[in-house]
Amino acid sequence: MSNVTRQKKLSNLPGERWKKIETPRPTLKMEYYVSNKGRIKSKSKIDGSEHHLSPTPDKKQYLKSSIKLEGGSYGLYVHMQVAKYWAKKPKDKNATKFIHKDLNRLNNSSDNIVWVKDEEWKEYIRARAVKFGFKPHRKGGKPKLTEAKVIKIKEHLVKGKMPKSKIAAKFDVSHTQINRIESGENWGHVKVPGFIANSNKMKSDTKKKAAAKKTTAKKATAKKATAKKAAPKKATAKKVTAKKTVAKKAAPKKAAPKKATAKKVTAKKTVAKKAAPKKAVAKKAAPKKATAKKVTAKKTEAKKAAPKKASAKKATAKKTVAKKAAPKKAAKKTTARKKK
Questions:
Q1: Domain-by-domain residue ranges, the chain?
Q2: pTM above 0.85, yes or no
């Protein structure tokens, strides 16, 4: 944009009017306008200077300009902007596409762009193909074969020296395409001296295909018949399993009272188990009380027996004292005897 010469005010064409374009994202320094004559200009937000954009045609000959918006560039198609802001709005809601009336996509005047339905748009595509010599191709893009190539292919088929597989590889087509050219199904309008379309072979091929379809159909019907025969067995097996499931569901209902009584028995057992320890504790406590009584009785007996033991001890003590005193008396007697 630095090399672009901008003007304060651009000169308009006779009857040219402008409308501001609403972009999908905010613009940076410029605002963009489209005219009813199919031109686009930019207007500076800073000084208001103007400049005509120079759109270039894409592969389909639609004029396109690249403008800068926040987040990156954006492709602005001229015919779309003219259709949106200047072409007459269709009353029919089904008219969702727009075409160039004169089939020239470089002429984007508002008078040349019209809103149409899908059927009209298809007719427009066919008309353009006829006018500019476009050849429809099943896979899209340009067709691989031309009339000149088809002539050479047919010449090879007339000579019969080169196998079909090599012919297909040479012209970068499929073996099926060569067969169709040979049978006259494809490119039948291209005439070559000595070449006669082998329509009989094509008929035989179609017969073979039809026979193959019939055989596959017969096999399918046979499979269905076997499946139907096997179906009753499956049905009976399903019925048996259904009966078993019903029996299983019914069995718990009959056994329910037993379970209830079993629960009552277990409840009684748990109550008995809880009560049993208390009795055992009582039994254990009873011997303790009996032993306590025995101990007290022994103590009383011991207390009663204690005086007897004390008197016995005193007696033994007296005896021991008497024994100790006896020798002394004997000694005194001996001394007395000596003195005499």
A1: 18-132, 147-197
A2: no
